[in-house]
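Morning F.,

Quick status update on the modeling queue. The single chain you submitted on Monday has been processed. Sequence for confirmation:
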Amino acid sequence: MAKPNYAFEKRQRDLAKQRKKEEKRQKKAGKQDTGAAEEATQEEPAVEPEVETPDVSPE
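Structure tokens below.
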């Protein structure tokens, strides 16, 4: 009978924890960014950026 590979199982658990922790951190960062963006739009009116047209030379 095969012997269980505890090191592999532990590594897989650790990787799963890291992924979950990273997703949670990104989710929190997204909420903070969204909250800051909403506050900025309430304080200042939105300004549309100028669109640059490429220079087209007649042939």
